[in-house]
Every structure is written in C-alpha cells, then in structure tokens.
Amino acid sequence: MLLTRLNPSQLPEQVETSLKLAEEPLADTARYDSLSTREVFHHV
Fold first, then answer.
1. What is the DSSP letter of 6?
2. Which pLDDT tens digit goes with each residue over 1-20?
3. In the chain, pLDDT over 70 holds for what percent of residues?
4. CA-CA-CA-CA torsion for 9, 14, 20, 21, nearest 10 degrees?
5. What distance in Å separates the CA atoms of residue 29 and residue 12, rounded to the nearest whole number?
6. Which has the higher per-residue pLDDT, 39 or 18?
7. DSSP string spanning 1-44?
8. What is the dihedral of CA 11, 15, 20, 24, to 10 degrees?
C-alpha cells in the first residue's frame, strides 16, 4: 500500500509565456480506436 497516494498532490507552478496556440487541439478518438486490432467489449 502506498501511503503517499493519500496526500493531495501539489500543482506545478504556472509559467509565464508569450506563446499562443494558433489552433486548439482536438480529441480524435477515432484515431485511438483505429490503433486497436481487436474489438473490445465493455460490460456495464
């Protein structure tokens, strides 16, 4: 058992930057699904 998991983790410090994203990243879940060669069934 790891007792360190019971302690809240510290957030990293914020870094000031002048960089801006030209395009927001999009989640492409179909790409990840295509990486799997077999079908997986999830039971509810």
1. G
2. 566 677 777 888 888 989 98
3. 77
4. 0
5. 28
6. 18
7. --GGGGSPPPPPPP-------SS-----HHHHHHH-SS--PPP-
8. -10
Q: For residues 42 and 33, what is the distance between their CA atoms, to the nearest angstrom?
A: 14
Structural tokens at position 43: 């039971």
Instruction: Give the CA distances from residue 9 to residues 5, 13, 15, 25, in Å, rounded to whole numbers and listed in that order.
Output: 8, 12, 18, 26
Structure-token match 């509810």, residue found: 44
For 5, phi then psi, to 5°, come to: -70, -20
